[in-house]
Amino acid sequence: MKKPLLVLIPLMLSGCSYYHTFVERMQTDTLQYQCDEKPLTVELNNNNQKVNFVYDNEYLSLTQGLSASGTRYSDGVYVFWSKGDTATVYRKDTVVLNNCQLQNPKR
């Protein structure tokens, strides 16, 4: 009786892990921006209040913070700020991606 439980419990726990990953992906929107400098793909997860994207071959994960206008995400070095269908990316208060326009926005 104990042997089947020893096999079953790890299988059930691994199933929970896959379910969590599945739910995360279902709650993530992929946004495509066209910036002055280059295109930008952003993964937005509203439930976790995070955005993820690659800039300069570095995977960035920014957490939502306070903003007087629009939505602001930061990791202390990079800032992704969006308002409506536009966005800007800063690195240490310097604009690195400007005039990013959301492509095919949902209406």
Automatic annotation (TrEMBL):
<dbReference type="InterPro" id="IPR018660">
    <property type="entry name" value="MliC"/>
</dbReference>
<keyword id="KW-0472">Membrane</keyword>
<protein>
    <submittedName>
        <fullName>C-type lysozyme inhibitor</fullName>
    </submittedName>
</protein>
<keyword id="KW-0732">Signal</keyword>
<keyword id="KW-0564">Palmitate</keyword>
<dbReference type="InterPro" id="IPR036328">
    <property type="entry name" value="MliC_sf"/>
</dbReference>
<feature type="domain" description="C-type lysozyme inhibitor">
    <location>
        <begin position="33"/>
        <end position="94"/>
    </location>
</feature>
<keyword id="KW-0449">Lipoprotein</keyword>
<dbReference type="Pfam" id="PF09864">
    <property type="entry name" value="MliC"/>
</dbReference>
